[in-house]
Each structure stands twice: as structure tokens, then as C-alpha cells.
Specification:
The complex is a heterodimer of chains A (396) and B (35). Helix content of chain A is 74%, strand content 0%. Chain A is an all-alpha fold. Chain B is built from one helix and no strands. Chain B has one helix at residues 3-22. Classes of the chains: A mainly alpha (396), B mainly alpha (35).
Chain lengths: 396, 35
């Protein structure tokens, strides 16, 4: 979001300064106003749509909270989930399947961006809000809390997908803390160094030197193809974690502790641990709102894991590659679940199940390389290219 | 006032300004914003 421009740092400086000079009770209004001003500067049409959607979802949430079990609550809940999802599908998924809709949206776009900024993120935040209203787990709040949550500019464009119950109490009890400002600036500096030095300098250079065309893997050694997938993985990981550092650091300048997105996923010993430390705000969303409901309905962990990982993959984009990427991870998780069951059944052979250094290291190597190789589904343009790429790695 | 934290904040602030100007002109676009 505007990071390389002069406008954004100037805006941020004024927003933070005014925020702390205002009385505590007025800060959430200021933060909401500042967020809507910045988003309107980027695209007033998208911001207007966001405002209308947010007001609708808030109203529906209040009706859901007020209504007892019955048809009224079900109707409001269905509407509050279907409307944001329909908005997401119209802008993000339909254009890929329908050229006329794509042309229409291109003509309507004033920013050059076909997809409204942050659409996937705020849609998932809305769904989370509606379901938690239904479960009656949210603290007392008003429309300003919800508008601030929906539009908070520091996490708007690419997450983390914050939970309302985590953010709202912090908005209600805002207090200046120098350590929070210092930590926020440290995270921003760290994120900038990661992005500028490691991603934009080292990894872009490395990808240039490897110079593998993903659609034409033939003629390259298997290790060059493997290095290409590793570089692409590191690029995606570090780029996104650098962005997350900026988002989390910026939020801390306002005294807000938003949820983390990464916790050293490259060091995890198995795929289950990996998904508890990679894009955590999204993976925990899929766990809570896809895995558990599907598991509750089917009592089958395999179906639940495939459903949640395919939703997670499809959330990224409307390509078959993302669905296969999700299925690849679901398969890995299903194999890991089976392995755990097998170990429990053969307790006498495998002992307590506690790993030692050697098995932990082997698990980490296997896990991270499985993840890296799975990146082939999104590195290529189509499934045939991905399969060919895999073939040239396996059969040198 | 917590002067240690304020000093650290000033230091990090200078670091941010330095990196910002050193990287001026680069197109720091994050791939995940496409989602």
C-alpha cells in the first residue's frame, strides 16, 4: 500500500501524532476516519462499497445477536455471509471465468486494479464477525468499533486477518506506551530491511541467475529446477513476512497488538506444525470456519482437511494451480495424520513418540522440501507445465 | 518518561528514514497485495 511513495509516510506520521494527542475516547474515531481517508485516496469507489458492506454486515450482526434461535437469525446470518462472498466472487473469481464480466470491470476500474484492494481479507473478516455474532462470543461494541476493524489501514491490504475480539478491547482502552512505539518502529525497520536487502536485492538477483523458465524446464539440471523452486518459496515467504512486519509494526504505533502471521515456519518438524506457523491468521481462520464445521458434520478428518486446504488455496486465486496447491498440502497433512495413527498403534516400537535431534532434523528437512516442491503448482501457468516440471526434477 | 524506549524509537526512526531514502526509486510492491 503506497509504501514507496512520500504520501504514505507523511500520512502515517500525521495519523500517529494526532492519534496520541487526542483524548483516549476519540482515538478510535480518528483511526477510522484516517483509514477511510487513505482508502478513499486509493479508490473512492472501492471504499464506498466497503462502507456499505461493513454497515450491512454490522447491522446483520446486531440482528443475529438480538434474535434467538430460529428462522430470523438464520436468514440474517445467511445474508451476511452470502453478500460479502458474492462481492468477492464478482470481482475476484467471475472475471477469470467470464470474459464479458472481465471487460466490464476493466472499463469500470478507475485505478487500473481490477480487484478492489484487500477484498479477500476484509471478506474473511466479515465472515468471522458474522459467525462469532451467531456464537455470541464478541464483546459489547458499536458501529465505530466495527468500521475501525473493517478499514484499519495498517492491516487492510494484505492482513493479518485480525479477529474482532482481539482488536476491539484494545480500541476501547487505548493508552500511550513508549515501548510499543519503539517496538513498532523496530518491526517496520526490520520489515524494510528484509524487503529491500533480502527480497528485492538478493532473491531477485538469485532468480535472475538461475534463469529457469517455469514453462520450459527441459534442458536444465534437476538441481537448477530445485533451486528455482527454493528461490520462489523464499521470495514468497520473505516478501510476505516483510509486509507482515510492516503491518504489525504500523499497528503497534497506534498501540494495537494485531495477531502474528509467521513463526519460523521453515523450522517446523511436520506439516501440521508448518501450518500452525505459516500465514497463521489465514490458516487459523480456515481451521475455525472450515475444518471444525466440516469435521463436525462429517466426523471425517480427511474430508475436513481437504475442504479447509482447498478453500485456503482457492482463497489465493481463481486458478486450478492454487486448488492443486491446497490439495497437495491436504495430502501431506492426511499422510501425516495416518503416520501419527500408525505410531500410536505401534507404541511398543515407536516408544513415547518424542523425537530426538536426528528425527526432528529429518522431519524438518522433509517438511520444508515438501512445501517447496508443492510450490510447482503455482509457479507454472497450467497443470501440464507443473507435471512436466516435476518430471524433470524426479527424472534428471 | 521511559527515555530508553524513546532513544530506541529515535534510533529506529533514523534507520527507517535511511533505508527509505536508500531504497528510493525501487518498486517495493508486495506480491501478497494481489490477493
Amino acid at each position: 500500500m503506497l509504501y514507496p511513495t512520500v504520501v504514505y509516510p507523511a500520512f502515517l506520521f500525521i495519523a500517529v501524532l494526532a492519534y496520541w494527542f487526542l483524548p483516549a475516547a476519540a482515538r478510535r474515531y480518528w483511526l477510522t476516519l484516517a483509514s477511510f481517508v487513505l482508502l478513499s485516496y486509493l479508490s473512492w469507489r472501492g471504499t464506498l462499497a466497503l462502507l456499505v458492506l461493513a454497515l450491512f454486515v454490522f447491522h446483520a450482526g446486531q440482528r443475529i445477536r438480538a434474535a434467538g434461535p430460529g428462522a430470523v437469525r438464520t436468514r440474517w446470518m445467511t445474508a451476511a455471509i452470502v453478500v460479502p462472498l458474492a462481492y468477492l466472487c464478482t470481482f475476484k473469481y467471475l472475471p477469470s471465468y467470464s470474459p464479458p464480466i472481465r471487460m466490464l470491470l476493466e472499463q469500470m476500474s478507475t485505478t487500473g486494479l481490477l480487484i478492489p484492494l484487500g477484498i479477500s481479507y476484509f471478506t474473511f473478516k466479515f465472515v468471522h464477525y458474522v459467525i462469532e455474532c451467531r456464537r455470541n462470543t464478541l464483546p459489547a461494541h458499536d458501529v465505530w468499533d466495527f468500521l475501525c476493524y473493517s478499514s484499519l489501514f495498517s492491516i487492510f491490504s494484505a492482513g493479518p486477518i485480525e479477529r474482532f475480539g482481539n482488536l476491539q478491547p484494545q480500541l476501547a482502552s487505548s493508552r500511550f506506551d513508549a515501548a510499543s512505539i519503539s517496538y513498532g518502529l523496530q518491526r517496520i525497520l526490520f520489515g524494510m530491511l528484509k524487503k529491500v536487502l533480502v527480497v528485492d536485492f538478493l532473491l531477485v538477483e538469485a532468480l535472475d541467475r538461475i534463469s529457469v523458465e517455469a514453462s520450459a524446464p527441459q534442458g536444465h539440471a534437476w538441481y537448477a529446477l530445485f533451486a528455482f523452486l527454493w528461490c520462489r518459496f523464499l521470495f514468497g515467504y520473505l516478501d510476505f513476512s516483510a509486509y507482515s512486519d510492516l503491518a504489525i509494526g504500523t499497528s503497534r504505533l497506534f498501540g494495537l497488538r494485531v495477531i502474528e502471521n509467521f513463526d519460523w515456519p521453515v523450522l517446523r518438524r511436520n506439516l501440521s506444525e508448518f501450518w500452525r506457523s505459516w500465514h497463521m491468521s489465514l490458516s487459523s481462520w480456515c481451521r475455525d470456519y472450515v475444518y471444525f464445521p466440516v469435521f463436525g458434520a462429517t466426523r471425517n478428518p480427511k474430508i475436513a482437511v481437504y475442504a479447509s486446504m482447498i478453500v485456503l488455496g482457492y482463497w489465493h486465486g481463481p486458478d486450478l494451480g492454487w486448488i492443486l496447491w491446497g490439495a497437495w498440502h491436504a495430502t501431506g497433512l492426511a499422510v501425516w495424520q495416518n503416520w501419527q495413527t500408525f505410531k500410536r498403534r505401534h507404541h511398543s516400537v515407536f516408544g513415547t513418540g518424542c523425537g530426538n535431534l536426528l528425527t526432528d532434523a529429518a522431519g524438518t528437512l522433509l517438511t520444508i522440501n515438501y512445501v517447496v516442491i508443492g510450490g510447482v503448482w503455482i509457479a507454472t501457468d497450467n497443470v501440464v507445465d507443473a507435471a512436466r516440471f516435476l518430471y524433470y526434477i524426479v527424472v534428471p | 518518561m521511559d527515555w530508553k524506549q524513546i532513544s530506541l524509537a529515535v534510533l529506529y526512526g533514523f534507520g527507517i528514514v535511511l533505508v527509505y531514502f536508500l531504497s528510493a526509486g525501487s518498486e517495493a510492491v508486495f506480491i501478497y497485495q494481489g490477493f
